[in-house]
Design a protein that fits this description.
Blueprint (H helix, E strand, L loop, with lengths): L2 H5 L3 E3 L2 E3 L3 E3 L15 H12 L4 E8 L11 E2 L5 H14 L4 E7 L13 E2 L9 E2 L2 H21 L3 E4 L6 H4 L15 H4 L1 H14 L5 E7 L10 E3 L2 E4 L2 H12 L4 E5 L7 H4 L9 H14 L5 E4 L22 H10 L5 E4 L1 H5 L3 H6 L14 H7 L11 H14 L8
Parallel strand pairs: 3-4, 3-15, 4-5, 4-6, 6-9, 7-8, 9-10, 10-13, 13-14, 14-15
Antiparallel strand pairs: 1-2, 11-12
Helix pairs in contact: 2-3, 3-4, 4-7, 14-15
This protein binds flavin mononucleotide (FMN).
The site of flavin mononucleotide (FMN) has 28 residues, from strand 4, strand 15, helix 12 and helix 14.
C-alpha cells in the first residue's frame, strides 16, 4: 500500500469507525469565555479542524472544576456548561459529521494555577507544593470526572479521553513518587485505584456501548519518581506500571490509548519534541510500539510527536529525507505496527486541512509546522494560542504578548 492509502484507510475504534488515520491532539488555546464555555473563536477553530477531515478530533483539556484550571480562560465541564457544550458540538459536527469527537477531561492538581485556582497535591514535588489532598477530596474529584463524562455524552461527544498524562492530576496520582500511605498511594494497587475505579464508574454512569472511553498516557515522565520510572527516586525507564495500567484499563473497557511522554512543566522537550532534538520523537515511537505489543489488536493506539517530521526537512540524520517526512514515516509506523493512528498537535495549528489536502491530491499545498514553538510561548504566557507562522492573528498576539510580558525563553525556543 502507498502511504496515502495507509493514512486514508478507515479504522474501527470500539463500535465506531474513523474515516482515516489522522488524530487531532488536544491543544489548549485559552480562548474560552469567562464561564469556561466555548467562545465564537473556540467554535470556529474546531469547525475548521472538522472541515479539515481528520478521522478523530480531541477537544483540548476541559477542566472538571473551576478551581482546577491551569489556564485562565480554560474550558470547563460542570452542570452549567451542559447546554453551551451541546450547542458547540452541534455546530462543530455540522461542519463535517464524519469525524469523531472526544473530550479530554482533566483536573490540574498541582498544576492548577494559584493565581485563579486551588493548587492541590497528592505529595508535594520540590518547587511545586500545593495543599495536601485528603481521601475524601479525591473521592470528590472522581465524582467531578463521572459527572463530566455524563455531560460529554449528553452534549453529543463520541467519547472521552480520561487524561492521565503530562503531569496533571491523573498522572500525579499514578507516580511511584506518590508513596504516601493512604488509600490512593504507596502500592501500585493503591496508586492505580483512582484510574481503575473511575473507568468502572464512568462506564456504568454513561451506559452506552457506542461511547468511546480511552486515555492519553505519558509512558515515561522523565524525572525521578515520575510515572514509568523504576521507583520513588529513580529516573530509570520501567514500563511495568504503564503496561499494567493499559491492560487494566483495557479490561475495564478502554477502546483506545493516546501515547505520550513527559510532564511539560518539568520535561518540556520530551512532551513536545523540539527542532534541536528531533530524534526524541523516536522515543515516542518506542513507547507506542510497547503499547501496541501489550494490547489486544482491536485496541487502537495513537502515536504522538509527528509534527517534528514535517516535509522531511527536520534535521534528522542518517535517514533519507523523503522517507522521513510526516506522511511517509507516519504511514510506515502504521504499516510496521508501531501505531494505528498519527497524532497531530502543533501541525494542526499550522494547517488544519492536512487530511483533506492529502485526500484531494493537494499535498504540495500543505503548510508544515516550523516547530518554532511560539504557540507554546503563548500558552505559557496565558495568551490566546494559535499558529504564529501562518496565521497573522496570532503573530499579532505574540508581538503584543511580548510587549506586555517580555519575551519568554521557552526551554527550546
Ligand atoms: C499550545 C499547546 C497546547 C497543548 N494542549 C494540550 C492539551 O490540552 N492536552 C494534551 O494532552 N496535550 C496538549 N498539548 C500537547 C500536544 O497535544 C501534543 O502531545 C504535543 O504537542 C506533541 O505533538 P506534536 O509534536 O504533534 O505537537 C499541547 C501542546 C501545545 C504546543
Amino acid at each position: 500500500m502507498g502511504y496515502k492509502e495507509t493514512l486514508l484507510s478507515p479504522i474501527k475504534i470500539g463500535r465506531r469507525e474513523c474515516p482515516n488515520r489522522f488524530f487531532i491532539q488536544a491543544m489548549e488555546c485559552n480562548d474560552e469565555d469567562e464561564t469556561g464555555n466555548p467562545s465564537e473563536s473556540t467554535t470556529e477553530r474546531y469547525e475548521e479542524l472538522f472541515r479539515g477531515e481528520a478521522g478523530l478530533v480531541s477537544l483540548e483539556a476541559i477542566s472538571v472544576t473551576r478551581e482546577s484550571r491551569s489556564r485562565d480562560n480554560q474550558l470547563m465541564i460542570m452542570a452549567p456548561n451542559r447546554e453551551p457544550l451541546t450547542k458547540f458540538v452541534q455546530r462543530v459536527k455540522a461542519a463535517n459529521p464524519k469525524s469523531l469527537f472526544i473530550f479530554q477531561l482533566t483536573h490540574s492538581g498541582e498544576l492548577s494555577n494559584p493565581a485563579f485556582s486551588r493548587r492541590v497535591t497528592v505529595k508535594p514535588l520540590p518547587g511545586y507544593g500545593g495543599e495536601l489532598l485528603t481521601e475524601e477530596e479525591v473521592d470528590k474529584i472522581m465524582d467531578g470526572f463521572v459527572l463530566a463524562a455524563e455531560i460529554a455524552h449528553d452534549a453529543g461527544a463520541d467519547g472521552i479521553d480520561m487524561k492521565l498524562c503530562h503531569g496533571y492530576f491523573g498522572s500525579q496520582i499514578l507516580r511511584p513518587y506518590n508513596d504516601r500511605k493512604w488509600k490512593y498511594g504507596g502500592s501500585w494497587e493503591n496508586r492505580s485505584r483512582f484510574a481503575f475505579e473511575l473507568y468502572e464508574r464512568i462506564a456504568k454512569a454513561v451506559n452506552d456501548p457506542n461511547f468511546l472511553i480511552g486515555s492519553k498516557i505519558s509512558a515515561w515522565e522523565g524525572f525521578p519518581g515520575g510515572f514509568g520510572t523504576a521507583g520513588v527516586d529513580s529516573p530509570v525507564i520501567d514500563l511495568t506500571e504503564p503496561i499494567a495500567l493499559l491492560k487494566g484499563l483495557e479490561e475495564r473497557g478502554a477502546q483506545f490509548f493516546i501515547q505520550s511522554a513527559g510532564s511539560p512543566s518539568i520535561t518540556i522537550s520530551l512532551t513536545q519534541v523540539d527542532k534541536h532534538v528531533p530524534y526524541f520523537a523516536y522515543l515516542h515511537q518506542t513507547f507506542s510500539k510497547a503499547f501496541k505489543d501489550h494490547l489486544k489488536p482491536e485496541t487502537v493506539v495513537i502515536g504522538s510527536n509527528y509534527s517534528v517530521f514535517r516535509n522531511g526537512k527536520n534535521g534528522l540524520c542518517a535517514v533519507n529525507q523523503e522517507e522521513s517526512s510526516l506522511l511517509h514515516f507516519g504511514a510506515k509506523c502504521i504499516e510496521d505496527g508501531v501505531t494505528d493512528m498519527i497524532g497531530l498537535g502543533r501541525q494542526s495549528f499550522a494547517d488544519p486541512y492536512l487530511p483533506k489536502k492529502l485526500r484531494e491530491g493537494k499535498e504540495a499545498e500543505i503548510k508544515y509546522c516550523t516547530v518554532c514553538d511560539n504557540c507554546l510561548e503563548l500558552l505559557i504566557q496565558q495568551s490566546k494560542v494559535g499558529c504564529c507562522t501562518f496565521n497573522k492573528r496570532y503573530t499579532d498576539i505574540l508581538v503584543q504578548t511580548r510587549k506586555e510580558k517580555g519575551k519568554l525563553t521557552v526551554a527550546h525556543t
